[in-house]
Specification:
Number of domains: 2
Radius of gyration: 22 Å
CATH topology of the largest domain: Trna Endonuclease, Chain: A, domain 1
Largest sheet: 6 strands, mixed
CATH architecture of the largest domain: 3-Layer(aba) Sandwich
Helix content: 25-40%
Strand content: 25-35%
Length: 236
């Protein structure tokens, strides 16, 4: 089994138990295939979402499973089709999350899709740190992770708040307040000042509006500075 499928297999084992207990039906999605010349199935792509199903009571759920060997999860590893699928499911009321396994730390977190969507809309966000997941995600318990005689199970429906979540959350906010502006430079040394995220919760569309306004304001300011610098009679 490839390393990228270990988390999926561990969730699938837990899903079997949930189904037997009547708590939920959580189905693992198979890769997309197409018929080949000799009638054999040809791999096309992975399924956009790893697991879909419903909890007892009818609430629809969907999970995408991801792994990282570092202390942060690069958002680039979340493919465009996966983002589109999670966004579409969430828009019709499905409870969507990305389950991230920090393999080096042996810690697993389920992060609500709505929170991740906020980060994707902000250009200064490139990855989710383990501390951020501890503060804002659900800490997912596991069974037999290091066992050689029993299969590993990742209990995605049995998570809870990390014991240091509040402390980490306050530290993250303090770090954001101490660095109110991020400066991005392009090839011509034009700087684009983008405010850090405000404390209130914003929709993805509100994020985009703020970012676009900041970008336009920053570019206009830099161009005006260059016009003044290169005005006739000022010299270089």
């Amino acid at each position: 089994m490839s390393r990228g499928k270990e988390l999926e297999a561990a969730i699938a084992r837990a899903a079997r138990d949930y189904r037997k207990e009547g708590r939920a039906v959580l189905m693992r999605q198979q890769p997309m295939t197409a018929p080949g010349k000799n009638g054999e199935a040809i791999f096309v792509s992975d399924a956009p979402v790893d697991f879909i199903g419903a909890k007892n009571g009818g609430r629809a759920i969907a999970f995408e499973a991801k792994e990282t060997g570092e202390h942060s999860f690069p958002l680039a590893k979340l493919r465009h089709d996966q983002r589109e699928a999670l966004a579409a499911l969430a828009a019709v009321g499905v409870e969507c999350a990305v389950v991230i396994d920090f393999k080096r730390l042996a810690e697993v977190y389920a992060v609500d899709w709505a929170r991740i969507a906020e980060f994707i809309a902000a250009p200064w966000r490139k990855s989710l740190t383990v501390d951020w997941c501890r503060a804002y995600g659900v800490h997912v318990p596991e069974q037999n992770r290091d066992s050689s005689s029993h299969p590993r199970k990742t209990l995605v429906l049995d998570g809870g708040v990390h014991p240091e979540a509040i402390e980490i959350h306050d530290r993250i906010l303090a770090e954001q307040r101490s660095s109110p502006v991020i400066s991005l430079e392009d090839e011509e040394d034009l700087q684009l000042d983008v405010p850090m995220p405000p404390r209130e919760q914003l929709t993805p569309e509100q994020w985009k509006e703020r970012i676009i306004k900041a970008a336009n304001d920053g570019i206009d300011r830099q161009l005006n500075q260059r016009r003044r610098k290169w005005a006739p009679g000022r010299g270089r």
